[in-house]
Amino acid sequence: MENLLFLIYAIAACGGAVGVALSQNVVRMAFWLVISLASVSGLFFMLGADFVGATQLLIYVGGTVVLLIFGVMLTTTGPYLAIKTNPAEMIQASVVGVAFLGVVLSTVTAVDWSGNRATLEHAGLVSRPGSYYQQGEGNTSRQIGTALLGVRFDQMEQGAAASDEAAHGHHHDGHTHADHAHGNHAHGAADHHHETISASPRVGSGYLLPFEIVSVHLLVVLIGASYLARAKRRVEQAA
Amino acid sequence: MDPVGLSGYLTVGAVLFVCGVICMATKRNAVGVLMGVELVLNGANINFVAFSRHTALGLDGQIASLFVIVLAAAEAAVALAIVLNFYNNHLTIDVDRAVELKG
Amino acid sequence: MPSETYLQIGETLKWLLTIAWLLPLGGFLIEVFGAKWSGRKSRAAAYLAVLCIATGFVCSFIALCTWIDAEDLTFSDVWQNPLAIAAEHDDHAAGEHVTAGHGEHAHGDAAHADHGHGDAVHGEVAHAEHGAADHGHGNQPLSHTFTGTFYTLAKFGNIKVSLDYYIDGLTVLMFTMVTFIATCIHIFAIGYMSDELTEDYEDHFVHLPGGKHFHRPGRFYRFFSFLSLFCFAMLGLVLAGNIFQVFIFWELVGVCSYLLIGFYVERKSASSAANKAFIMNRVGDFGFLIGLMILWTWFGTFSFANTNPDQFGEVGLFQMVRTDDGQLDTEGAGMNRVAYMQSLHGERLEGTDGAPRAIPYWLLIVAGLGIFGGCIGKSAQFPLQTWLPDAMEGPTPVSALVHSATMVAAGVYLTGRFYPMFTPEVLLVIAYIGCITAFIGATIALVVTDIKKVLAYSTISQLGYMMLALGVGGWLAGLFHLVTHAFFKSLMFLCSGSVIHGCHHEQDMQKMGGLAPKMPITCWTMWIGVVAISGLAIPGLMLPYIGAVAFSGYHSKDAIVATALTFASKNPTHSLLFFIPLVTAGITAFYMHRMWFMTFFGKPRDQHVHDHAHESPWVMTGPLVALSIFAAICAWGGEHGPLAQLMLTSEPTHVAGGIAPSGEIGLALPSHHEIHGNHSKAGVMALLAAFIGTIVAYVFYCRQTVDPALVKDRFLSIHRFLVDKWQFDEVYDVMFVRPVHVIGKWCVGLDKFGLDAILHGLARLAIGVATWDRKFDEAVVDRVVNVFGEVTYSTGRSLTAIQTGRLRQYVMFIAAGVVCLFVVLFIFLPR
């Protein structure tokens, strides 16, 4: 079932993208784009990123594409509805595109992703386990919200269960870390006590600053866009 | 049958990316170019979320993709404003007519 | 004096004198920098200068009163009649040192804590030797001196260079005298220099081609600023507490003298006279520097003495050289003779190695001669006397202040101040130099006709007298004459200035005559000066309380002659040192009266000058009257009068008792007591000589019973010799100037044909190298650079073809570029 859904969404997304690339009429391009972006949001849902998928639908399909269509309406009149592309260019582009695709896909297939992860964990370079499994599939809105405010519920300070599940190589590291954090490392045989101590979210490693920057950025963009696009009285042509 | 792994999503992302690039390279319509950009960004987003799901990236990947979405929306707004200006000045949106940068 | 009182008086004197010293400096600065605002026609500069120096005089006078009060001088001697004075000296001869006159001097001087005389303590330094000899209690020389340091300039370990002060009776007296005379002369100069108060001054003595005279703006304020600077320098010289500081101000007065002599700088004679004065002084200063080096090397200090109780232990030069009773502590003979240095405790000073420190005796002589060399230059002594007559090119107030009363007296002052450092051998040299100078100056003055030159040679002669007096052991006599001479010589110079001003800058006495009715004040004030310098007195008349009826010059000259006579009788080998001054005294009376008669009496020789002559305004005659009063009475009482008593408080300890024949030359110096014994004899002789001179002058130039021209023809060759100033200038010309010219020519030749040729060769070489270098630059360096530039430019041009400005193409390039990069990566990156 999952594979089937993925197949549908994948084909829709890729097909939409190809349609955008191939169609000459700008309105059709917009249509294909909606198809493609909506499918991508479906893929997001499948990946357990509910909030991102919803945002994709809202902003892209509901916002950006409408904006584009407005742009098309405002600018594309009569002869400019479809501007033909030189077929030679199309061929060149497709050659380059295919080459590019080959390069990327070869990269994707060449890397042994799961093997890499295991290698990294074994070497101790990945100390944090993925967080999906404890918090439940797809319920990420709260975590993302707190992460944007700087509190990481997805990264617990030495969650006891998580550290037990971690590779054996990390056991001592984890405990030393805990000892330091709680300040009672003088108790030599206190290992078991620590495991019962409840975990707390990491504070201070979130995205509060980028969040603020992005918000200011959006404000600037809003002002800038309205300034650029404001209705200027055009100087009379050749008058 | 195994569930679709990381590679599948990466492939979809790659296809979107390449289509976006081809769009940018071939469309003479300025809005079409913008659509290409959106496709490129989406391809990248898919990669982010996929890595977020399948590797230790965790929630960070999703947050990065959120920022990308937001910035893409902003970019679209600004770019459309530019396109409108371009149209006002050249009475066309054919990017091939904009050759002021020719050396 | 108790220590607190001592310090209190010292502080008072220090501040008073420092104010008097620095005020002219302030005036100078304001005059120099304020001249812009006051303008050329303003008298503000003069008023400011007068204000400064007059305030300085008031301060100095207060200091003088403070000093008299502190010394408790009651001048009781003067109030007694001469018989009592004689009786007193008999008492001295009997060894009784506590007299009625001194018994009431109740000094609480701790250093003089008396052992045998509970009721009377003697404090007069002049009589200290008796107490020291009889009772052996600690006599401390310089107990009537205040020293200290204003500011330390540099310090090298134990030795330091500092600005000190050294205040004793002589300092205070000199301050009062200098400021008073300077005040008078400043006021006089307001009138004398008034024709400089103009924007366009015509100098009648500078002839331009075309028969025109030189025109320039007036320099009234400049004159007064120079005068102020001079006063500052002179007072600093007097106040200086170490020999190095003396040297600094010594040079500063030299500079002022240079500036003032060359005041009319456009006149060739004035500028060359200024140069001459400066260069002649440098010759003397060379000796001064040698003396300084010796003192610095051997003694390690410049300071005269240190009497400050707070700094007990530091020793000055005077204290090092002289023992407590004022003698030199020498040992050995010939070149091996050494003089041991003394500490303050009456012991020999020990060096770092524990051995007593000593200086070779001959080096002490050389140091003394060196310092005296400076004095020779400054005081215009033989053989450096020729600059002083030429210095008369300066304005007359300058001649009065700088070149008769103060600056030239600085040499005498320094000789007196440095007296403890001079060994008998040096003193003999000083005496002979002074004697020769006195005679040369007097003889030349006989024939000079320029009124200022007469006074100039007279000054030289009188300075010689002072040196002679100092040399023969008459410390008091020399400095006494210094003060009295300052008064009457400045008076006479101002009178001559008044005459010159009244006669419209005519200085030749041969064009004057019969001016007495036209300028009576000038005439009779000058008479006072002439009588004073001649040493005339009413014979046989001795008034009670006053002594001989005479003006100041009589007393001081009498003292000198008496000292010289005593000296000659003790050292018969050197009896010339008595006879020449005696003859010179007669000559002095002659030429001074000759000048006076020629100027003011007889028939007018030049009717034009006579017709236009007029008395000077009050601003000029006022100072004349003031000075004439002082010239008349300042020395009243003679050696028992207030002036002499005041000086005696600071007389070096060893002078009063005389010195027994000693040293290589077996020289004996007279004691006060011996001099007193010869006083009447010497006085009669000097008076006789003066009267003879006066009468001869009267006969020659007033009655004109004998025509001077006849005498002149009779002794034509001598006259010629004297008119040529003993041909000193010619001798110097042959000895120094011409050789220098020759050497200069050789140097020019060397420059032209030696150094210049080398330089030209080098220059040509440089040009050749530069030419080749240029070719290399153009052919190689420039070409390389140009090629680079061209290649870059053409590459850029050709690459513009790629930059189409088409966005889509760029995207294409990017994509293709990424692909290419990956391909390259895949191919070349090792797995």
Strand order of the largest sheet of chain C: 5-6-7
- The percentage helix of chain C is 55-70%
Strand content of chain C: 5-15%
Mean of pLDDT of chain C: 81
Overall residue-averaged pLDDT value of chain A:
73
Poorly predicted ranges of chain C? 75-140
For the biggest sheet of chain A, the summary is: 2 strands, antiparallel
Radius of gyration of chain C: 36 Å
CATH class of the domain at 1-76 in chain A: Mainly Alpha
Q: How much of the polypeptide of chain A forms β-strand, as a percent range?
A: under 5%
Oligomer: heterotrimer
Regions of chain A with pLDDT < 50 over 5+ consecutive residues?
Answer: 129-135, 159-195
Shape of chain A: globular
- Class of secondary structure makeup of chain C: mainly alpha
The total of helices of chain C stands at 29
Largest sheet of chain C: 3 strands, antiparallel
Q: Rounded to an integer, what's the Rg of chain A over CA atoms?
A: 26 Å
Gap from first CA to last CA of chain A: 67 Å
Measure the end-to-end span of chain C: 108 Å
Fold topology:
The complex is a heterotrimer of chains A (239), B (103) and C (831).
Chain A: H1 2-22, H2 26-46, H3 50-75, H4 87-110, H5 113-123, H6 132-135, H7 141-148, E1 151-157, H8 160-165, H9 171-182, H10 191-196, E2 200-203, H11 208-229
Helix pairs in contact in A: 1-2, 2-3
Chain B: H1 6-26, H2 30-54, H3 59-90
Chain C: H1 3-38, H2 44-71, H3 76-79, H4 82-93, H5 100-103, H6 128-135, E1 146-156, E2 159-167, H7 169-192, E3 201-208, E4 212-216, H8 220-239, H9 243-261, H10 268-299, H11 317-321, E5 330-331, E6 338-340, E7 358-360, H12 361-378, H13 387-390, H14 396-405, H15 407-417, H16 424-447, H17 451-471, H18 475-502, H19 520-534, E8 537-543, E9 547-550, H20 552-570, H21 576-600, H22 607-612, H23 618-633, H24 642-648, E10 659-662, E11 667-669, H25 672-703, H26 708-714, H27 716-723, H28 728-799, H29 807-828
Antiparallel strand pairs in C: 1-2, 3-4, 5-6, 6-7, 8-9, 10-11
Helix pairs in contact in C: 1-2, 1-8, 2-7, 2-8, 7-8, 7-14, 7-18, 7-23, 8-9, 9-10, 10-12, 12-15, 12-16, 14-17, 14-18, 15-17, 15-18, 16-17, 16-21, 17-18, 17-20, 17-21, 18-19, 18-20, 18-23, 19-20, 19-21, 19-23, 20-21, 20-25, 21-25
Description:
The complex is a heterotrimer of chains A (239), B (103) and C (831). Chain A is built from eleven helices and two strands; from the N terminus they run H-H-H-H-H-H-H-E-H-H-H-E-H. Chain A has helices at residues 2-22, 26-46, 50-75, 87-110, 113-123, 132-135, 141-148, 160-165, 171-182, 191-196, 208-229, and strands spanning 151-157, 200-203. Chain A has a two-stranded antiparallel sheet with strand order 1-2. Chain A starts with a helix and ends in a 10-residue tail after the last helix. In chain A, 25% of the residues are buried. Mean pLDDT of chain A is 73; it is low at 129-135 and 159-195. Chain B has a single domain, classed as Helix Hairpins (Orthogonal Bundle). In chain B, 76% of the residues lie in helices and 0% in strands. In chain B, helix 1 (6-26) runs antiparallel to helix 2 (30-54) and helix 2 runs antiparallel to helix 3. Chain B is elongated. The model of chain B has no long low-confidence stretch (mean pLDDT 85). With 831 residues, chain C is mainly α. Among the domains of chain C are: 73-135, no CATH class; 471-723, no CATH class; 730-800; 801-831. Chain C has 29 helices and eleven strands. Chain C has helices at residues 3-38, 44-71, 76-79, 82-93, 100-103, 128-135, 169-192, 220-239, 243-261, 268-299, 317-321, 361-378, 387-390, 396-405, 407-417, 424-447, 451-471, 475-502, 520-534, 552-570, 576-600, 607-612, 618-633, 642-648, 672-703, 708-714, 716-723, 728-799, 807-828; strands at 146-156, 159-167, 201-208, 212-216, 330-331, 338-340, 358-360, 537-543, 547-550, 659-662, 667-669. In chain C, helix 15 (407-417) packs parallel to helix 17, helix 16 (424-447) packs antiparallel against helix 17 and helix 18 runs antiparallel to helix 23. At the A-B interface, helix 1, helix 2, helix 3, helix 4 and helix 5 of A face helix 1, helix 2 and helix 3 of B.
